Amino acid sequence: MRKNESAKGLIINIFTFVILMIAIYFAYQFYQSNNFNGFIRSEAKLNISEFKRDKTVKYSDSNSYKITSNEFNDAMFSKEIEVEKNTPYKVTCMIKTKGVEADKNVSSIGAQISISNTVERSVAINGDSDWQQVEFIFNSKNREMVDIVFRLGGTEGYAKGEVWFSDFKIEKGQTEEDSDWNFACFIFENTNVVVDNKQIDIQVTNTDIEDIKNTIERFENSCNQLSDGKMTADCDIYEIQEPITSLSYDDEFGYYVAPEDIEEQIKDIINKNNYDHIFIVVRLGNEEYEDDIEIKDWIGLGSMDYYGIGFSNIRLPNSSKSYIYKYDTSVNQFPEEVFLHEFLHSLERTAKEYGYTVPALHDYKEYGYENEYLIGQREWYKDYMNKEIYTSNGYVGLPNEIYTLKPAKKSNFEYAYELEVYTEPQNIIEEIRGIFSNLFMNIGLLLAKV
């Protein structure tokens, strides 16, 4: 009798052990597919995209992070990280795509790295692509926390397809403390666009190019002089013969050149250099086609950026008789004004992003300044750049430190070091902890949907 009970107990124990092993096996398989290592999954359209850890398609030993969107969506893995203020950071990962397609013809939509609720991002990958490293450089500015996202989509639209992310890494760089600014000025010699079903072909002249070169030299000198030596400016000029073939449109400004319109023409030059600001010089009309491209009274547009670098439009006038970029003692003694104005818009925006309160650049009349004959708003710019605008509450303007708050770029990471933010589990104990952590997180997500 006791032998039978003993045998029965043994069978039960074996059966229990087998069931336990099967449960552990399936739990481990579930963990392998659903351990997102602290990443939060989110999507603009709920329950459209699928998030998985892929143990078949992967770049290294760790399972890749996969997003599948069979319909257009903005889906992402995200993790909030702690950062130091005014510090450059670089996030890199490996990305593989299959059938990625954007819902509109905008280069900012696709598989990418970005910061949640901002337009700060890396390049966006579309179509079919094998594993490639993508990097995203940003400055923390006035922030102490940033939410880094690895997404299929974008701030300007949705995407569909499959994307795999792997081998995440974040590095902290070194802040530059100098006030020497490097500018790139791209003169586009040809504009060949279709507007309202009309083919428009416009060219700049040799006189235009010579005027811009002279004006840039004056701009470099004025940055130093008007800031009372607080900054220097050095500008490289590139004459681009490959035409602009697309323009962007805004209800307030009409047509203009957005970074995505000319990215193919400038990206290699920008990637090889460490520029702090970009000027795009373009002609969008002339006497023959004056009414064919809608421009709403702008000669310069600023406050844009190209992957964190300030980006400004400088428009050549339609009339060849204009003196806007020509120095003449009796007509225009400040032809560099448009360049300086648009650059100051970038400094204005940067100051606000760092938490400073500064006057609006266009509000010169409210502080008693005038647009003077021959020199335009030169006196306003000088006081604006030196925080010497008098008010009853003291002097206002750009803070002195603004000239060292330059955009983050590759040169900041010569002596970078990696932060332990995206470390995968290194042993079975860490994996078991991850199983329970992931289990509780999934339970919480299910309860939130109920």
Describe the structure.
By secondary structure, the protein is of the alpha+beta class. It folds into three domains: 1-35 and 426-450; 40-175 and 416-424, Jelly Rolls, CATH 2.60.120.260; 180-405, Collagenase (Catalytic Domain) (3-Layer(aba) Sandwich), CATH 3.40.390. Helices cover 26% and strands 34% of the residues. The chain contains six helices and 21 strands. The strands form six sheets. Strands 2, 3, 5, 7, 9 and 21 form a six-stranded antiparallel sheet that branches. A five-stranded mixed sheet has the order 13-10-16-18-17. The chain has a four-stranded antiparallel sheet with strand order 1-4-8-6, with no helix packed on it.
Q: Features of this protein?
A:
alpha+beta, 34% strand, six-stranded antiparallel sheet, Jelly Rolls, Collagenase (Catalytic Domain), 3 domains, 450 residues
| SSE pattern | HEEEEEEEEEEEEHEEEHEEEHHEEEH
Structural class given helices, strands, pairing?
alpha+beta
Distance between the termini: 53 Å
- Average pLDDT across residues? 90
Determine the CATH topology of the largest domain.
Collagenase (Catalytic Domain)
Rg, alpha carbons: 28 Å
Q: What is the correct CATH architecture of the largest domain?
A: 3-Layer(aba) Sandwich
Number of DSSP strand runs? 21
Helix content class: 25-40%
Strand fraction equals: 25-35%
Count of domain modules? 3
Low-confidence stretches are 23-30
CATH top level of the largest domain is: Alpha Beta
Number of helices: 6
The profile of the biggest β sheet is:
6 strands, antiparallel
